[in-house]
């Protein structure tokens, strides 16, 4: 039976990879990457010499695309699995499918291979095991050291740029649950300004911006929305890097 491993990789610090992830990447027949150049750096560090291939993006896998090059890739992946090969899926950083491509590919593979209950000798090799190899994800890493309530939270992925953005900020402001989302360096100030606008003092929201997690300049900036906004306005050099924002 072929195996399709969904493998989490580091979100910054290259040491954050599990023994099981290394072993898996060493043993599969092919590693499917978001960007082969990014993954090659990790593979070189751990002396993993396996062929790599980039995989089609989620919108293409999900929509019966007319892009023949991408469709060929999808067909090739399905063929390899059918032929009994073991594959691993990785993204550039963190857990594949979590605000990253890969989710639709997993869904297609499950649909094509895994739901069969009536295995017979004829189609025995048509079945594929989808196996998660857990590891880092920015959302969980940020929550774990934020000091904010984590017993219940909602993960919003990346916020929409236009349509629905205002509604979402209203939801964040009114929510009793901790809310977590990813933000780009270009929009962090705009987002903090919106938090100031939509979270009035009386609803006592706390914000924690987790920046550059697991990297040299890792920091957690916590306070009320106006305090955190002021900090990032005053410290322009800190508007760079990767951000995960928590509001509670
Ligand atoms: N799949 C990844 C995961 O499991 O965390 C997330 C991929 S998403 C395309 C990338 C976004 O995650 C970044 O723009 C940032 O908002 C957040 N992120 C990733 N690495 C981070 C880090 N080291 N520190 C803070 N946020 C990070």
The overall strand count is: 10
Annotated CATH architecture of the largest domain: 3-Layer(aba) Sandwich
Enumerate the distinct ligands.
S-adenosylmethionine
Give the tally of structural domains: 2
* Parts with pLDDT < 50 across at least 5 consecutive residues: none
List the total number of helices: 9
Kindly estimate the percentage of residues that lie in beta strands according to DSSP: 15-25%
CATH-defined fold name of the largest domain: Cobalt-precorrin-4 Transmethylase, domain 1
Percent of residues in helical segments?
25-40%
Mean pLDDT: 92
Structure classification: alpha/beta
Largest sheet, if any?
5 strands, parallel
N- to C-terminal distance: 45 Å
Give the overall form: elongated
In CATH, what is the class of the largest domain? Alpha Beta
For this structure, what is the CATH homologous superfamily of the largest domain?
Tetrapyrrole methylase, N-terminal domain
Map the helices and strands.
Elements: E1 2-7, H1 19-27, E2 30-33, H2 36-45, E3 52-54, H3 58-62, H4 68-82, E4 87-89, H5 103-114, E5 128-133, H6 138-144, E6 153-158, H7 165-174, E7 178-183, H8 188-198, E8 207-211, E9 219-223, H9 225-234, E10 243-247
Parallel strand pairs: 1-4, 1-5, 2-3, 2-4, 6-7
Antiparallel strand pairs: 7-10, 8-9, 8-10
Helix pairs in contact: 8-9
Bound molecules: S-adenosylmethionine.
The site of S-adenosylmethionine has 23 residues, from α6, β7 and β10.
């Amino acid at each position: 039976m072929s195996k399709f491993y969904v493998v989490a990789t580091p979100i910054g610090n290259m040491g954050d990879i599990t023994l099981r992830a290394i072993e898996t990447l060493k043993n599969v027949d092919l590693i499917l990457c978001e960007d082969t150049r990014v993954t090659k750096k990790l593979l070189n560090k751990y002396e993993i010499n396996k062929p790599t291939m980039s995989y089609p993006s989620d919108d293409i896998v999900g929509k019966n695309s007319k892009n023949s090059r991408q469709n060929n890739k999808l067909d090739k992946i399905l063929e390899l699995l059918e032929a009994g090969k073991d594959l691993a899926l990785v993204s550039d950083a963190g857990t594949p499918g979590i605000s990253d491509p890969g989710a639709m590919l997993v869904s297609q593979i499950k649909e094509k291979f895994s739901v069969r209950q009536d295995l017979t000798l004829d189609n025995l090799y048509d079945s594929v095991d989808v196996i998660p190899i857990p590891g880092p994800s920015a959302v969980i890493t940020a929550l774990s050291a934020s000091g904010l309530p984590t017993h219940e939270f909602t993960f919003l992925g990346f916020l929409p740029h236009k349509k629905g953005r205002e509604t979402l900020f209203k939801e964040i402001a009114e929510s009793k649950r901790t809310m977590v989302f990813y933000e780009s360096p270009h929009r962090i100030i705009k987002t903090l300004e919106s938090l100031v606008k939509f979270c009035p003092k009386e609803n006592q929201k706390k914000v924690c911006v987790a920046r550059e997690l697991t990297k040299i300049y890792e920091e957690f900036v916590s306070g009320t929305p106006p305090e955190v906004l002021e900090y990032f306005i005053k410290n322009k050099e800190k508007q760079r890097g990767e951000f995960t924002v928590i509001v509670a």
